[in-house]
Design a protein that fits this description.
The chain is of the alpha+beta class and 65 residues long. The chain is built from one helix and three strands, in the order E-E-E-H. It is elongated, with a radius of gyration of 14 Å.
Length: 65
């Protein structure tokens, strides 16, 4: 089985650098340093969880292929 990582990128510019509090809470704002786009920490975590679920479905499907 291969190792996978979830990479968080800005949906607007593809940037990978963000400003966020040291102990982010769900309603805290995370801002892309490249373009200034922002989202809540919860929105970003939800998007990452969706990526993980999609990857698991793919990996599990590959096991039975």
């Amino acid at each position: 089985m291969s190792e996978n990582a979830v990479e968080i990128t800005c949906a607007n510019c593809g940037g990978k650098d963000f400003e966020y509090p040291s102990d982010p809470q769900p309603d805290d704002v995370v801002t892309c340093t490249g373009c200034g786009a922002s989202a809540t920490y919860k929105e970003i975590i939800d998007a990452a969880e969706a990526q993980i679920v999609d990857q698991l479905k793919k990996d599990i499907g590959d096991i039975f292929s």
